[in-house]
Design goal:
Order of helices and strands: HHHHEHHEEHEEHHEE
CATH class of the largest domain: Alpha Beta
Radius of gyration: 37 Å
Number of domains: 3
Structural class: alpha+beta
CATH architecture of the largest domain: 2-Layer Sandwich
CATH topology of the largest domain: Heat Shock Protein 90
Distance between the termini: 66 Å
Helix content: 55-70%
CATH superfamily of the largest domain: Histidine kinase-like ATPase, C-terminal domain
């Protein structure tokens, strides 16, 4: 009987022994019946003590078995049987502990599923340009390829390399933001200068398509110049890709005591209602997405902006076209959208 090894029980029995002897001595000094009664009462008390210890041990053993089942992944274990008497305090604490452990396990499983989906999306996004590079490399290896075709293939090869380089760099930026290892500078900047800086890599493609680009107004904001230019450049690139030839992209700047605002509007077809709710999700590509789109530009823009106490929202203009509203708040936290 393992419960007899309990040290607390040993102490109680050792304390009971001299008390029994003293009670028996006093009883027998008076009469034989009184001594026998004292011994009987002491024996009954010892039996009650042993029974209580045995019941406590059985409860503890059952609790240990239930906890072991929980640790091995069983979810239907009920601990309410221990919610009585002195066990109620332990039951309350164990319930809190198990609730916290289940929450952590669910969170870890969610992170694991998200990581698996992320790796699958990354593999898919990288596989596409790698496949194109493999085909283009095979074409360039053909000795009978004409000079004109070789130049065209080389240009396509360079485009795919640029796309792969941008994709890898964007993924690295997103991973750094996720890990919290990015130290964003806080500088007071002219948003007009920042807008022209973000649009400079798009100047030639816009000119080739006959698109017009203009910046209206002036405002200042406290933000990181390089990262914010990256975010705004991704928004402008999205607008450029969905604006037809001879269309226009307009950036309107404005500020008040609460926030500074960048309003980006284009004259494209706008955004489908089904895409508005998912537009800033990682690797999401809408039905009207550009063929070369990887679905991470706007997601990266959102991560950069929100990391600087800002918000970004997308909507459709009544006149047609898309509208992106970026705000950098001066307070410690922006209001809920």
């Amino acid at each position: 009987m393992k419960f007899l090894r309990d040290r607390e029980l040993h102490v109680q029995l050792l304390l009971l022994l001299p008390l029994t002897m003293a009670a028996a001595g006093v009883g027998f000094s008076r009469s034989h019946q009184a001594g026998c009664l004292a011994l009987g009462l002491c024996a009954l008390f010892a039996l009650v003590l042993l029974g209580s210890a045995w019941r406590r041990y059985r409860t503890m053993e059952a609790l240990c078995q239930d906890l072991d089942r929980i640790l091995h992944g069983e979810s239907g274990v009920d601990l309410d049987a221990y919610d009585e008497g002195a066990w109620s305090i332990l039951h309350s604490q164990l319930t809190k502990l198990l609730t916290r452990l289940r929450e952590q396990a669910d969170r870890l499983q969610g992170d694991k599923d998200q990581m698996a989906a992320f790796l699958a999306d990354v593999s898919h996004q990288i596989r596409t340009p790698l496949t194109a590079l493999n085909l283009l490399g095979s074409q360039l290896a053909d000795p009978s390829l004409s000079p004109d075709k070789r130049r065209t293939t080389s240009r396509e090869l360079r485009q795919q390399l640029d796309r792969l380089d941008w994709l890898v760099n964007a993924l690295l930026r997103m991973s750094r933001l996720d890990a919290g290892t990015v130290e964003l500078c806080r500088e007071k900047l002219s948003l007009k200068d920042l807008t022209y800086r973000a649009a400079s890599p798009l100047a030639i493609p816009m000119e080739l398509q006959g698109q017009t680009f203009q910046v209206v107004g002036e405002a200042q904001a406290v933000c990181d110049p390089a990262w914010t230019a990256e975010a705004l450049g991704n928004v402008l690139k999205n607008c450029m890709e969905h604006t037809p030839a001879s269309g226009s992209i307009t950036v309107t700047l404005w500020e008040n005591p609460i926030y500074s605002q960048i309003l980006v509007e284009d004259t494209g077809p706008g955004i489908r209602q089904e895409d508005l709710l998912h537009l800033f999700e990682r690797f999401y590509r809408g039905q009207n997405a550009a063929p070369q789109s990887a679905g991470i530009g706007l997601a990266l823009a959102r991560m950069i902006i929100t990391a600087q106490n800002g918000t970004i929202q997308a909507a459709n203009r009544r006149e047609g076209g898309a509208r992106f509203t970026i705000r950098f708040y001066r307070q410690s936290a922006p209001p809920a959208p």
